[in-house]
Amino acid sequence: MGLRTEISERQRRFGEELRRLRDTAGVSAPEIGALMGMKGPAVSHTEAGRLSLNLDRLHIWLDACHANDPEYRAALLVIGQSNGKGWWTDYRGYVHPSALDLAEYEADATRLESYETLLIPGLLQTKAYSEIILEYAEKKVEFRRARQEILSVESGTPFHAVIHEAALHAMYGGPTVMRDQLNYLIDVGKLPHVTIQILPFGCTVFASTDIPFMLLHGQHPKLDTVLMEQPHGVPFLGDPEAVSSYRRKFERLRGAALPPLSASAPGPSPAYRDSWGLLQHIRYAVQGR
């Protein structure tokens, strides 16, 4: 089998997990290669995501590295055997490869946690708002709308967003677009699997992050991933220490943010004591413009 020239984030992460397992077990690359009958730099290519493993060799690798946690092992087998194809495949060439990787991660995620500073999270944007942010790039807008399907059903993927108040005041597209966007946040926030909290300007707690990020929870905690919204560098982090750090950051952010509205509550609070009270106040201000 030839080497891959284009490596997806799933393939890269799979190889990274195999290398981490081997290093932790103290097994050298030549040793594990010998066990599987692999010669030369094949092990290095596998760990770099350039070469796949068949099921028999994957089991040998996991056994040699004492990967005995059945849930982690099963999740890793799924990642290793996936062909990476899904609805997002049709958008190859229209959106950035990292966007395709994100859609693949979201499709497999058990839970999503997002922090945004100046924009409404992509999964919560209206079509008009997305058009402004994406400069009316039709395919990119269409792709973003397709991503939102994971929230559209009653049993959708659990999604928890902490949004800085600054994102609610930015008049992208003008008052009409923002009014509709705020109305949509109120509506979608009532779904049982969606939680939205606002981090207000008046927050006195420093949450130690000013960079938007998303925590994508995999089929096993060891396979959780962080998406960093940064203009340069690798946007996905899978290092256990880095992921743990962002888990703690999100916990601080949700603790500092205003309480969300319960899906069982009769309607948004008119006061400032929760996220929806603040959101409603901003919405009324926008309507007056």
Question: How does this model look, in words?
Answer:
By secondary structure, the protein is α/β, with parallel strands linked by helices. It folds into two domains: 9-81, 434 Repressor (Amino-terminal Domain) (Orthogonal Bundle), CATH 1.10.260.40; 87-287, Endonuclease, Chain A, CATH 3.30.870. It has 13 helices and six strands. The chain has helices at residues 9-25, 29-36, 42-47, 55-64, 70-81, 97-108, 127-133, 138-147, 149-152, 166-169, 175-188, 240-256, 275-287; strands at 111-116, 159-164, 194-199, 213-217, 225-228, 236-237. The protein has a six-stranded mixed sheet, sandwiched between helices. The longest helix is centred in the N-terminal third of the chain and has 17 residues, at 9-25. The termini are far apart. The mean pLDDT is 91.
Round the mean pLDDT to the nearest integer and report it. Answer: 91
Shape: elongated
Shape-level CATH architecture of the largest domain: 2-Layer Sandwich
Question: Number of helical segments?
Answer: 13
Largest sheet: 6 strands, mixed
Properties at a glance:
289 residues, alpha/beta, 434 Repressor (Amino-terminal Domain), Endonuclease, Chain A, 2 domains, 46% helix, elongated
Give the topology.
Layout: H1 9-25, H2 29-36, H3 42-47, H4 55-64, H5 70-81, H6 97-108, E1 111-116, H7 127-133, H8 138-147, H9 149-152, E2 159-164, H10 166-169, H11 175-188, E3 194-199, E4 213-217, E5 225-228, E6 236-237, H12 240-256, H13 275-287
Parallel strand pairs: 1-2, 2-3
Antiparallel strand pairs: 1-4, 4-5, 5-6
Helix pairs in contact: 11-13
